[in-house]
Specification:
Elements lengths: L1 H13 L8 H6 L2 H14 L11 E4 L9 E4 L4 E5 L6 E8 L2 E6 L2 E8 L5 E6 L6 E5 L12
Antiparallel strand pairs: 1-2, 1-8, 2-3, 3-4, 4-5, 5-6, 6-7, 7-8
């Protein structure tokens, strides 16, 4: 899956329209000069606000499935689950100042807001309301299913 994502990103970059540098010009650059460019590239691929990564976030948005959680892992894996729905594992990434992922075939983009270290707000592009989450810092058990 990760290889497919990498291939897709490389294919998109190849369609950018700017010509690729010739091999001699690229080879003429010293190795030390190439390292800062690589560091800049990795920084551009990081979200503006990365405090949400590697934590378990439980939804507090009214009307959402009970016990919904999201975990954005550092390796760009996203785990979504709730007490009464099947879990979903997908990949997440960065799109400018937003993060993005897919739910089934639907691309989702969201602005990440952290009012405090234990609060997360996702402002989903195209939706009028925000999705709110709190960090899970203590054990949690799903409530009994409503009857």
């Amino acid at each position: 899956m990760r290889t497919l994502s990498l291939f897709a990103m490389l294919a998109l970059c190849a369609c950018g329209g700017s010509p690729a540098p010739s091999q001699p010009a690229a080879a003429a650059q010293p190795a030390a000069a190439a390292q800062p460019q690589a560091a800049d590239a990795s920084q551009r691929d990081e979200p503006v606000n990365s405090a949400f990564i590697g934590r378990v976030w439980r939804a507090t948005t009214r009307g959402g499935p009970l016990g919904s959680i999201m975990i954005f892992l550092p390796d760009r894996t996203l785990l979504m689950d709730s007490c009464f729905e099947t879990y979903r594992v997908s990949q997440w990434g960065v799109a400018g100042d937003r993060i993005r992922w897919r739910e089934d075939t639907i691309p989702i983009e969201a602005e990440v807001v952290s009012p405090s270290k234990d609060e997360l707000i996702l402002r989903i592009a195209g939706l009028d309301r925000e999705q709110t989450y709190i960090a899970m810092t203590e054990p949690y058990t799903c409530p009994d299913m409503p009857r």
